[in-house]
Amino acid sequence: MTVNDSLLAFSLAALLLTLTPGLDTALILRTACAEGGKKAFHAALGIDAGCFIWGALVALGLGALLAVSEMAYTVLKVCGALYLSWLGLQLLIRPRSSFSEGEENNGSQGNWFIRGMLGNVLNPKVGIFYVSFLPQFIPAGHSPFIWTFILVSIHVALGTLWSVTLILSTHFASGVLKKSRVVRVMDRATGGLFLCFAAKLAISTR
C-alpha cells in the first residue's frame, strides 16, 4: 500500500467511524444544546486529547497491553463504565430547567474538556480499535511511531469538523432548546443514553 493509498483508505474508514452515532456524538449534542457551543467545543477538544493519548500509548506499545491482558482491559472497562454511570445518574437525578442552571452547577469551562477526555481515555474500545486498526494503514518501510500520530491526527481532524457541524446545527434550534421542559427532557434522555453506554461497556469483551 502506497502512502497516498494509505491516507485515502484510512480517511474514508475514519470518516465512516466518525459519522457513526456513539458516546462522543451524544456528548457533543447534549452539551451544545444545554451548555452552549463554547462548552461543547471544549468537550470536543477533550475528546481529541483522548484520541492523542491513546495514539501515544499505541505508538509506545502500551496500548497493545489491552489486546493481550484481560485484567488490564477489565480494569479500564470498569472504570469507564463507572464514570459514564456517574455522569448519567447526575443528569437523570438532577436535570436542569435552564442553561443558567447548567453553568452554575457544572463549574469551570474546563470541566467539559476533562469530561470529554476522560470519556475517551476510559473507553478501552478506543484503545483496541487503534491497536487493531491503525497498523493496517501504515505503509511498509515507514515509521510506525510517526504514522500512528499522522493517522490519529486525521481521525481527530475529521472528528473536530463533525463536532463543529453538530454544534452549529444546534444554533438554529436554540429557541426551542431553551425551553425548560426541553432542557429537562434532554438531560434525562442523555443521562439514560449514558447509562446504556455504561452497561454496554461493562458487558463488552475484547
Describe the structure concisely.
The protein is mainly alpha-helical and 206 residues long. It has 11 helices and no strands.
Description:
This protein has 206 residues and is mainly alpha-helical. The chain contains eleven helices and no strands. Helix 2 runs parallel beside helix 9 (144-171). The protein is globular and about 60 Å long.
Topology:
Blueprint lengths: L2 H17 L3 H12 L2 H23 L4 H5 L1 H24 L5 H7 L4 H12 L2 H10 L10 H28 L2 H4 L2 H23 L4
Helix pairs in contact: 1-9, 2-3, 2-7, 2-9, 2-11, 3-7, 3-8, 3-9, 5-11
Strand content bin: under 5%
Order of helices and strands: HHHHHHHHHHH
Cα(first) to Cα(last) distance is 28 Å
Query: What is the CA-based Rg, rounded?
Result: 18 Å
The strand count comes to 0
Number of helical regions: 11
Helical amount among residues, as a percent range? Answer: over 70%
Write down the overall geometry.
Answer: globular
